[in-house]
Structure formats: C-alpha cells, structure tokens
Amino acid sequence: MKLNLFKLIMLLSKHSLYIMVIQLVSMQLVMANATLGQSLAKVKVSISVSNASLEEIIRIVENQTDFVFASKGQMVVSDSRIDLHLRNSNLKHVLEELSRAFQYNFKRINRNIYVWKQKKSNAKPNDKIDYQVFDRTI
After folding, report:
1. Does 73 share its domain with 111?
2. DSSP state of 124
3. The domain that contains 93 carries what CATH number?
4. Are residues 109 and 59 in the same domain?
C-alpha cells in the first residue's frame, strides 16, 4: 500500500513538473513584445513637392509613417523652401536631405523624431541622423 502511494506521488510530481515547464515557456511567448527597432533605412516614403517648407514635408512624412515629429520648445520654423521629389526612398535619406536643406538636426527615439535647429557655425550641416530605440518592457 505504501509503495503504491509513493508511486502515485512520484507520478503526480513528475506530471506537475512537466505542466509547470510548459506554463513557463508559454508565459515567455505571451510576454514577448514586438520591438520598435526598425531601422530608418528600412522605412520607405515617397515625396513629391515643389516650393515646400520643412513643416509641410514633416506632415507628409508623418502621414506616410508611424513616426511623430516633435521639437523642443519652439515650432519648426524655416523661411527656406525646397523642391523634393523622392520615390520609395528610405526615411534616413529623406532626413539627411532635409538636414542639408534646412540646417535642422533629427534624432529618433522610439516612434518619435525630435527636430532642432543646428547651431550656427562655419561647419557644413550635419549629415548624421541619430536614433535610439528604448524597450519599454515592464
């Protein structure tokens, strides 16, 4: 009798352990989040504008992508206007073109792209677009 009870306890313990392992693996799959790490070079946009301001081009990019543009303190204001005709171009290239034309810097953090005026200097405009992706997993 004691032997049968011992076998039954061992069998239940073994099955409980298997079930617990399956639950742990399942929980990991459920808790996995999609990452926001898509490179700016992989995001495609098409822009065809004439005599457009930076603000107009930013609105077009926002409408074609999941990114939101933000500026620190002041609105993006530029008296300059450009003609820009790009088809299926990557977003990194578009931001580099805007940086050269308007002397603004761009920095991506998650789904936001921050915009600020370049400091006045004799140096050529910054061609580098910075971006960082932060995981918001809790």
Report:
1. yes
2. P
3. 3.55.50.30
4. yes
Mark out the alpha helices in the chain (DSSP H runs): 2-31, 54-64, 91-102
**How do residues 54-95 score in pLDDT, each as one tens digit?**
889 999 999 999 999 998 766 667 778 999 999 999 999 999
The Cβ of residue 100 has, within 10 Å, a number of other Cβ atoms equal to 14
Q: Are residues 78 and 21 in the same domain?
A: no
User: pLDDT digits over 6-54, tens only?
Assistant: 888 888 899 899 999 888 888 777 766 555 566 888 899 999 999 999 8
Q: Are residues 18 and 71 in the same domain?
A: no
Q: What are phi and psi of 137, to 5 degrees?
A: -70, 135
Task: Please give the residue range of the domain that contains residue 21.
Answer: 1-32
Alpha-carbon distances, residue 27 vs 21, 31, 32, 70 (angstroms): 10, 6, 9, 36
User: Three-state DSSP class for 87?
Assistant: strand
